[in-house]
Amino acid sequence: MDTLVNFQRAEPRFPGQFSTSANNLAIRHRNFLPFLVEPYEAVRRLLLNCLEIIDLQALDDDSETRKLIQILRDLRSSRKRLLTFEEVGLEKTELKWLSELWRYHVIQKGEDGTDCLYRVYFELAILFKIRSELKSGDLYVPKGERFDDYRESLVDDETLVKELPDYGATTGIDVDAQQHIAKLIEQLKQKIRQVDARFPDNPYAEIVDGRLSLKRPKRSKTSQDVQLLDDMITERMTPANIVDVLIDTCRWLNLHTEFRTISEGRGRIAELLPRVVTTLLCYGCNLGPVQTERSVRAISRKQVSWINHQYVKEDTLNRCIVKAINRYTSYRLPGFWGSGKTASADGTKWRLYEQNLISERHIRYGGYGGIGYYHVSDNYIALMSFFTTCGTYEAIHILDGLLANKSDVQPDTVHGDTQAQSLPVFALAHLLGIKLMPRIRQLIDLVFSRAEPKHKCEHIEALFKDDIDWKLIETNFLEMLRVAVSIKLGVITSSSILRRLGTHSRKNPLYFAFRELGKVIRTLFMLEYVDDLEVRKMIQAATNKSEQFNRFVKWVFFGGEGIIAENIRHEQSKLVKYSHLVANLIILHNVNEMTRVIGELQQEGMTFTDEVLGGLSPYRMGHINRFGDYTVDVSRSPVKTFADSDMRMPVAA
Fold this sequence. Notes:
Structural class: alpha/beta
Distance between the termini: 70 Å
Number of strands: 18
Number of domains: 3
Radius of gyration: 30 Å
């Protein structure tokens, strides 16, 4: 920050006065504020119009924000560069909410040497404050779709009292605040004592200069027995055309019976099965109606599009996915890969055209697109899928997938990467009876929290830099349960509440209560992560399965260079679910083939241990022909060749 302040003092602060070198330094020191002025001036009128139209309200009696909004409205016709505090009706002490960086740009010296407000930066600072409070729920738009008052969606007191006993029995959560907190305190104390006692004998963790250092275990190699069986299965699997795979699985599941008209009628199409198979090929493999018409005989692009628009909704595809999952679990082989009690969540970028509302440039992967977010069971089958923007924090969707899942596979533990966790997410998962166990990058930089301030450790004391405010949790425990019960009853989704509670709030006590509870649950998890190497291996293996599925579903979605060509939001979501369904159908077909091959090998006298069968994977692609069959007929008459002389050239004017 000292370097940044020195740089700012040496350079002009006014819009348009930054040199190229100053711009480069601003980027280097993450001072993005001077670059906001030009685009803001272009949309200033539109933003101020929005403030006039929408009736922003605060969760509490927040006179500060209301006053700032009114000042912004009053400045609509102002074109002054500098404003005095008297002109805007503010005291300098009322700007404590400004950060150091904002304060430097907003407060500047006037011609007489007094402190003034730089109008453009002052307006931007207020707009950023409004944006932040809308995201956190401190401000809301009455009757709005996304930024409404979330409290109106929660269950009332009567429903809460009625549902709490059943909720506690279902989730295993103690609904009495004092008893719940007493159990957490004792659980945290006991865990700290166990990890502290075993820490000197832990070869994979140590504290160096007051910082935790975790050593990576040696990478385990695939055993020769697993590789031998895998090679034999690959050799014996029957080569299949992808259309035949879809026909087989659709017949096994009677999948065409799930395709109904928008009014939920059966429709009048006599032969629906071939139309359904063609539609799955078209949209699940991203061929598009035109290319599908060229590749599949006796069907037109209009017929394919008709099925998609008139017979297919997201609910239709979800029902088909559930059918595929339930049939998949009827095989014994997936039981060797996982119990179905854990799942991993991860997102992958899907390419989009730039000119649509959801398309954003991904800061990590580059290029424009959206994020397909998948929940993959530990037995390799994908349970749920969502489509969202690149800028969305993935953690808000991690619980939605488990709660919306209606298949026979019902995990109670979910893994993810760093983006799949935050303190409110840990807290909400705990209250919903879900165990969150993510793979966190830079875990050594996170803060461990003590059960009590006086509780000291012998070996891991350097890790603990924070205490738990148990009183805050107890005071707001009933309101936190109200949120959890509302989610369980389906009156609100976990993602909609996490959009508010997952964003920093300065005013909402419920946000701070979720953070405090999240400190407890995350500290318990991190202690287990540090203490038990097998936990780390399990999390790594689970997240690897998600990454493998991401590659597999991209392989399925091979047409159109992997670009989602639709520009309508719900059609983009449907394409992600189409590819999810087709991927699951291929996985189901692969498991059936693998079962056949293993049965033949056993009849030939071979035996396999559980460990060998558990080392296999259904993500098999080598035996599937994605691109159709082409006939090389050299006996056919060639097309007649023409010379340039056969074409009449236009006469030059």
